[in-house]
Amino acid sequence: MVNIKKYFIQLNLAKLKVDEYLAKNFMRAGYSRVDVIKTPLGTRVVIYADRPALIIGRRGLTIKQITEVLEKYFNLENPQVTVTQVENPDLDARIVATRIALAIERGYHFRRAAYVALRRVLAAGALGVEIVISGKLTTERARYEKIRAGKVYKTGAHIERLTDRAVMHLLRKPGMYGIEVLVVKPSEPDDVVKVLAAGEEQVQS
Hints:
The chain is of the alpha+beta class. It has helices spanning about 5-25, 50-55, 60-70, 95-105, 110-125, 160, and strands at about 30-40, 40-50, 80-85, 130-135, 145-150, 165-170, 175-185.
């Protein structure tokens, strides 16, 4: 009999390894996340990205190479790889962090890159956003700079439902930069209090 606990641990470890591989090799494609699903016919791998064409490659060449790597080095049985466009990239913390990292790499000032990203996230409808950039930003001494707008939740059960967090590392000449992005997605948080008018009854859903 299959040990269910062991099965899910192995599945999640495989997903973690695949995620690290894709994040490292497809940063410029705006890689977001991956789903690894076991099926009777093999393993279904769904990759979510901002620019799927860069992962698919010309005539599907890149996705064929990914399939070979997943089968040979990650021991996934008969991997069936599909690439999906992220519905709203500006609300995806990993994509936002990647954009900031690429902007800094191209020579933009870290503060300008962060504020451009912050405005885009808020324009997409986010309730709040926090961006922290750390490293040797302006001097030889490492420090960090934090910018925040809107409502940012750090505690409470609703953070699992509302918040998306990502950390990105970027190696530059002065040293390693760390970029942390926290996005509060557009939805009603648990701390909203509604005052009913006299005689009005709350309808339970």
